[in-house]
Amino acid sequence: MQTICWNQTHLNYEFHCVKxxxxxxxxxxxxxxxxxxxxxxxxxxxxxxVLMLADFMEDQSIFFPDMEHSKPDxxxxxxxxxxxxxxxxxxxxxxxxxxxxxxxxxxxxxxxHQAIMEDIPSHLTAVAxxxxxxxxxxxGKGLGSVLLTCAYARIDVLPAQVLGIAHLGAGRQxxxxxxxxxxxxxxxxxxxxxxxxxxxxxxxxxxxxAQESRQLAKEWRNWRMNPEWRDPYDGFNFRLALxxxxxxxxxxxxxxxxxxxxxLMDCKHWLEELGEHDAIVMAISRASGNLHNYSGRELxxxxxxxxxxxxxxxHWLVHICRGSPESEKKLA
Length: 332
Fold this sequence. Notes:
With 332 residues, the chain is an alpha/beta fold. The chain has a single domain (2-321), classed as Rossmann fold (3-Layer(aba) Sandwich), CATH 3.40.50.1820. 32% of the residues lie in helices and 18% in strands. The protein contains nine helices and nine strands. The chain has helices spanning 78-84, 112-130, 143-154, 179-199, 214-225, 238-244, 264-274, 298-301, 309-321; strands at residues 2-6, 9-19, 25-33, 49-53, 88-92, 136-141, 162-168, 249-255, 279-284. β2 (9-19) and β3 (25-33) form a beta hairpin. α2 crosses α3 (143-154). The longest helix has 21 residues, at 179-199. It is globular. The two termini are 20 Å apart.
């Protein structure tokens, strides 16, 4: 266990190794508010578990940019923000990302199916063991949101109840509504293909700080253009499955600009695929009353984010957790 000081609040950081199929070891990062001396021990952790999954070409650092540096006065990071408010935050590393093992190489062809059917279920089970009987909240960014939704559709019996899912900059299919967005999309695709040919995997600062397998990148590119939403491995129809399994309450936060993937237009199109459910959509822009016109990545990394739209996310969490006895326990 490590102690991290964030915004004058002491937080406990733990790293857990989660075993998946085929000898894969997944990294699970845990962050929660430090208790007083009379509350030592895991049994003192009472906040609602919040699970976070990053976007394509990103890792857990999107939720806590300064985790490795432990800066005492930082104001960045959704994960420490929620942990300081009493939530029990878990950041999930998929295979080949973050502190998972083995590291990604050109010989590995992991795809979307393995993320949905092996990695995410392993993480859900691990969190349920650490916090038995506790309902959970899920938060995803971009592809992370799509993968969490796919897992919700496919897993027959979840290890814990899901109170709600927050989606940040998420959309399954990209609608190329203007020339600028179409050009960005084409550059994004060509950069991945070139990286795969050169390195055997998709990496590069222009694409994102993390890396992905060529197989997953190819499958995600296809999903972004294909009107059909099916598992590339076995053809499972996610759209049909969700019609038979209603989603919990969901919050959607998307940038209003139509120049990049995961914008408000993509989100609204995805809502049609998801079917009828309790949904709140927030367009993040100056015109909507926010401090800035953020990019998709800046939704989480901008220095003003936790004092702007992420406050609305926190208020939504309080609202959906109101019926859960775990969520409203006050921390000393």
